[in-house]
Design goal:
about 375 residues, 4-stranded mixed β-sheet, about 45% helix, 4-stranded antiparallel β-sheet, Butyryl-CoA Dehydrogenase, subunit A, domain 3, binds flavin-adenine dinucleotide, alpha+beta, 12 helices, single chain, Butyryl-CoA Dehydrogenase, subunit A, domain 2
C-alpha cells in the first residue's frame, strides 16, 4: 500500500483546501438553509456532487482517489454534505448508473445531483430485515404495469420523499430466495401508497411504515431485469460502506470528547487527568486509527480496480461500535449531568452527547446489524462455517 499522493492528487487536495478556505469560514452557520443552499450550488458548479460518477451522466468524472481526498477534506472541515439527496447519491444513483436505461439515467441522475427532491429506500419489511432476501411485498405484472401489494417498514424519510427505490417479489423460488426479487422506482404520490410515521426513542420521527394497496407502477420504472433486483441491491448497498469520511467524523467526535473530559471535573480535578479516562480515550484513538488503515486498504483495492465486497462490513461494524461506546462514555463521564437532555441549561455541549447516545440505532441497526456484519466477516472473509 503506497500512501504517497501523485503531484496531480496533491494539486487537487490544495484546490479543495483553497475552496474550503474561501467558502467555509470557521463561524459559518452550517444549519442555515440559505447558507447550505448556496454551498450546494457552489459544489454543483464545481461538479463535486457525484464527483466520481461518469461525466456523461453529469458527474465530475473524478478518480476514486480524488473522491476520497474530497470527502476527507470536507469531513475534516465539518463541511455540509456533498449534495443534499443522501440516498440518491449513496445508492439510488449508483444503482441507476449501473443498471438503469438511458431514459432512466436522463430522468433521474440530474435531479439527484441537484438535490431536487429526496429518495427513500423500501427494502425492510415487518418480518424481513436481516433476512431481506426472503421479502414478500408482491408485484404482479398486468400488461405494461406492475401491481404492488404489501408493506415496508423503517423507511427513513418516507414522509418527505418524492420517490422510493422499492424491492418487490415477482416470483417465488424454493431453492434460492434471492431469485424473483425485482427493483422498482416508484413515485410516492402514486394512488394506493400510505405512509405512517414511526416515533423513535429520542423523540424524533424520521422513519415510517409504508403500505402498498394495488399500487400501479409502469414497467418502464423497473430498474434492471425482472427477478434481478437482488443484484441491483447488492451493487447499491456496496456504495454505502467505504468508510474513509466516517473516520474523519469519528476523529472530530473524539477531539470533542477530549475537550469534554478536560472541562468535566471528577473529585475536583479535570476528568482528563484520570488514568482510567485517559486509557479509554487512548483506546478509542487506536481503534479509529485501525479503522483508517482498513479504509485505506479498501481504497487501495478500489484503486487497483478490484471491487469492494464483504470487507466493507468491517468498517460498518467498527464505526457502529465506536459511535455507541463514545456516546455512552461521554454521558458516563458527565456523572449526574449525564442524563440531561438537549435544551437543559446544564447539559454539556448543548446535550449533543446525550442525543448521540440515544441515537445509536441509526448507526447500529440501519444498513444491517452488528450480528449480520459479524456473520459476513466470519463466513466470507475468515472462511468460517456458515451460521
Ligand atoms: C434508524 C434506522 C433507519 C432505517 N432505515 C431504513 C430504510 O430507509 N429502509 C429500509 O428498508 N430499512 C431501514 N431500516 C431497517 C434496517 O435495515 C433493519 O432494521 C435491519 O436490517 C434489521 O432488521 P430487523 O429490524 O427486521 O431486525 P431482525 O432481522 O429481526 O433482527 C433482530 C435481531 O436478531 C439478530 N439477527 C437476525 N438474524 C440473525 C442471524 N442470522 N444471525 C445472528 N443474529 C441475527 C439481529 O442482529 C438483531 O439483533 C432502518 C433501521 C433503522 C434503525
Amino acid at each position: 500500500m503506497d500512501l504517497t499522493l501523485t503531484p496531480e492528487e496533491e494539486a487537487f487536495r490544495d484546490e479543495v483546501r483553497a475552496f474550503l478556505d474561501e467558502n467555509l469560514p470557521q463561524d459559518a452557520n452550517r444549519a442555515d438553509p440559505g447558507f447550505v443552499a448556496e454551498w450546494q450550488r457552489k459544489l454543483r458548479a464545481k461538479r463535486w456532487v457525484g464527483f466520481s460518477w461518469p461525466a456523461e451522466v453529469g458527474g465530475g468524472g473524478g478518480s476514486i482517489m480524488q473522491q476520497a481526498i474530497l470527502k476527507e477534506e470536507m469531513a475534516r472541515r465539518k463541511a455540509p454534505p456533498l449534495g443534499s439527496c443522501f440516498m440518491g447519491l449513496t445508492w439510488v444513483g449508483p444503482a441507476i448508473i449501473a443498471y438503469g436505461s438511458e431514459e432512466q439515467k436522463q430522468r433521474f441522475i440530474p435531479d439527484i445531483l441537484d438535490g431536487a427532491y429526496q429518495w427513500c429506500t423500501g427494502y425492510s419489511e415487518p418480518d424481513h430485515g436481516s433476512d431481506l432476501g426472503a421479502l414478500q411485498c408482491k408485484a404482479v405484472r398486468e400488461g405494461d404495469e406492475y401491481v404492488v401489494n404489501g408493506q415496508k417498514i423503517w423507511t427513513s424519510i418516507a414522509m418527505w420523499s418524492k420517490w422510493i427505490i422499492l424491492l418487490v417479489r415477482t416470483s417465488q423460488h424454493a431453492d434460492d430466495k434471492h431469485q424473483g426479487i425485482t427493483c422498482l422506482l416508484v413515485p410516492m404520490d402514486t394512488p394506493g401508497i400510505t405512509v405512517r410515521p414511526i416515533k423513535n426513542m429520542a423523540g424524533g420521527a424520521m422513519f415510517a411504515e409504508v403500505f402498498f394497496d394495488d399500487v400501479r407502477v409502469p414497467v418502464e420504472l423497473r430498474l434492471g431485469a425482472e427477478g434481478e433486483g437482488w443484484k441491483v441491491t447488492i451493487t447499491a448497498l456496496a456504495h454505502e460502506r467505504s468508510g474513509i469520511a466516517e473516520v474523519e467524523s469519528l476523529t472530530r467526535n473524539l477531539e470533542a470528547l477530549k475537550r469534554l473530559a478536560q472541562k468535566t471535573t471528577r473529585g475536583g480535578r479535570p476528568a482528563s487527568e484520570d488514568p482510567g479516562v485517559r486509557a479509554r480515550i487512548a483506546r478509542f484513538e487506536t481503534r479509529i486509527q485501525a479503522m483508517r488503515m482498513n479504509g485505506l486498504r479498501y481504497l487501495t483495492k478500489q484503486l487497483r480496480g478490484e471491487p469492494l465486497g464483504s470487507e466493507t462490513s468491517v468498517s460498518k461494524l467498527l464505526r457502529a461500535q465506536l459511535e455507541v461506546e463514545m456516546g455512552d462514555f461521554a454521558v458516563e463521564i458527565q456523572g449526574a449531568a449525564g442524563p440531561l437532555v438537549e435544551g437543559a441549561e446544564a447539559a454539556a455541549d448543548g446535550g449533543r452527547w446525550q442525543k448521540m447516545a440515544l441515537s445509536w440505532p441509526e448507526v447500529v441497526i440501519g444498513g444491517g446489524t452488528p450480528n449480520i456484519q459479524k456473520n459476513i466477516i466470519a463466513e466470507r472473509i475468515l472462511g468460517l462455517p456458515k451460521d
